[in-house]
Amino acid sequence: MDQANFASENLKNTMVTVEAMQAANKELKKQYKNVNIDKIETLQDEMEDMLEQANLIQETLGRTYGLPEDVDEADLEAELDALGTEMAFEEEETPVYLAEPADVPLPEPGAALPAAAVGQPNESGRFKLNV
Prior knowledge:
The protein is rod-shaped, with a radius of gyration of 48 Å. It is about 60% helix and about 0% strand. InterPro entries: Snf7_fam (IPR005024). Belongs to the SNF7 family. It comes from Olpidium bornovanus.
């Protein structure tokens, strides 16, 4: 008797499972009616084309012009350090416009002044000195 009850219970469970599978199948069919595989493939193709175009743009922007392919990083670092040292040295120097003027001897008081221009200017607008 227990075995018959067990078989009956098992059959009821199977029927519930089959009904659930039928309901799920019906719902999936309804949802798949809204899905168009051609639209999905077209969308995938468009995405692939756009990503390929983005890669081409990145390759184009990443080109190097006039630079050798085998740039030595150590050489670049050494050059950068040298530039930094040069800039630090330049910062320590006093700019020309702030430097003290050179000692230029002034004429003695009472010394003769240069002769003044006399006469008419020539065609270039300059006066001829009469010494």
